[in-house]
Amino acid sequence: MLGESTVNPYGEFKISFGYKCNAHKGCSCLIPNEIENLPGKFPRNSSFSRLSGAALSANATLANTNICNGVIREEILPSWDSPNSFRRIPSSPTLSRLDVLSSSLQSSMSNLSCSPATSSPPEYDSSSLRSMSSPCRNEGFLNAMEVQVAGGAAGEDRVQAVCSEENGWLFCAIFDGFNGRDAADFLAGTLYENIIHQANLLDCELKKDVTGASNGFYPHGPFQYALEGARNSHVEKPPAGTFNKKNSSIDNSTKNGPFPDSPDSFRHGMLDSLQRAVSQAENDFLYMVEQEMDDRPDLVSVGSCVLVGLLHGMDLYTLNLGDSRAVLATYDEEDSEMKGCGRLKAIQLTDCHTVDNELERTRVLSDHPDDPAVIAGGKVKGKLKVTRALGVGYLKKKNLNDALMGILRVRNLISPPYISIEPSLNLHRISKSDHFVIVGSDGLFDFFSNDEAVKLVHSYILSNPNGDPAKFLLEQLVGRAADCAGFSLEELMNIPAGRRRKYHDDVTLIVIILGANQRTSKASTWV
């Protein structure tokens, strides 16, 4: 029944985690199955009150792959995975252990510093990747002494959630892998650190600007200035709507004012940093594929959709490649003062990169005017429905396609790359009208429209304010999948992974409850 969640007696969800921030300073809020009280205080700039995540596998896949000589499987992922609760870990670099990458790819950026002598960071180059010791390592807003982490793998999907109590930000990511989980595993082990590195470079650039322009007027750095700007801009009516940034170059027009590190300059730079991090991950992954494809030619077909959400103060940044979605539940303007009583509407914050999207289909066709078979059988080159993704090298490079044998190889690869790595980027300013965000892989939206998902979560939250909306929504999906297949719930759940893929996809989702007016203090975790 809508609004009531019954635990599935026939099998546990692969992943189910939650994190809750208390609304009253110094109080411990009781929640079901509470297992641990985590000390510490959220800064006043925190704009979410709690979140929950859940995932269910349908695909049979290798439990862990051996990419990068097993470093990701054996060292990095075990330190980050926590599928049934959040746990506290030191925030330390993980990419320093990826010495499997060629030293020529461990970029010339190591010579960067925050010295005023450097006017701007160098142009990003595909052969210039990260420095193993990030500049300004301890000063960027994503750096923290320790973080709370949760996540893991369900089939070919991977999910991550990372939050910092000391710095007041939340990072969420869903990597929907296909043709194997190698690309999703690689992203889970590297993308977060890539983003930290790029944010540090941005911090260096803006710090130099603010030092020169304002003579150190903002001693806590540009990130704190961005937060102060966000808070000040919400004294009156907050800016409405979202800012969509298709091309991720910093808008220099925002840097000509008295303070080059203005909030808008920081926000544009952060979007640019997200895109650079994904480009870096793509270069790293395809380089790894080229090194290992003689032993594992299947790696050239492995890829992953990418969905990242970063909540910093009142700003929600989203990045996506593929068909995963972030959907905002917000009240109509006239109902914003009556949360729980007003009319919620669903706003999709991400673009859908598939051939079914007419804009994407037109883009792909126009990018390859000399290829009469760009889209065949409703798929790019007859192989893939998504038009943007990480990996899937055989549709991007001829030498990777040549590694495949027989019918697996794409014929007439006339003008690669056919799959884009350029993400859609979006910035939404959180307002008092916004209630929650659903972040989910496409398996969720195979069964629910955006409006249906929002209504289900909203109804559940009203009836169960301390419950687990992500797990509830996943339970509703399993029930609908069973009905569509003509099975009972027990019959569907007893079908083993692999065969169950016929009835539903891997499904991964996170629900973030926004609380712009609820300042948080302590946090708790539950299973």
TrEMBL record:
Renumbered residue ranges of the record's region Disordered: 109-132, 239-260
Enzyme class: hydrolase
Name of a matching Pfam family: PP2C
Superkingdom, natural source: Eukaryota
UniProt keyword list: Hydrolase, Magnesium, Manganese, Metal-binding, Protein phosphatase
Cofactor(s) the protein needs: Mn(2+); Mg(2+)
Chain ranges of the PPM-type phosphatase domain: 141-514
SUPFAM superfamilies, per the entry: PP2C-like (SSF81606)
GO MF term list: metal ion binding; protein serine/threonine phosphatase activity
EC number: 3.1.3.16
Polar residues bias (residue ranges): 244-256
InterPro entries for the chain: PP2C, PPM-type-like_dom_sf, PPM-type_phosphatase-like_dom
Catalysed reactions, as listed in the record: O-phospho-L-threonyl-[protein] + H2O = L-threonyl-[protein] + phosphate; O-phospho-L-seryl-[protein] + H2O = L-seryl-[protein] + phosphate
PANTHER family xref list: PROTEIN PHOSPHATASE 2C, PROTEIN PHOSPHATASE 2C 40-RELATED
Family stated for the protein in its record: Belongs to the PP2C family.
Protein name per the record: protein-serine/threonine phosphatase
Species of origin: Populus euphratica
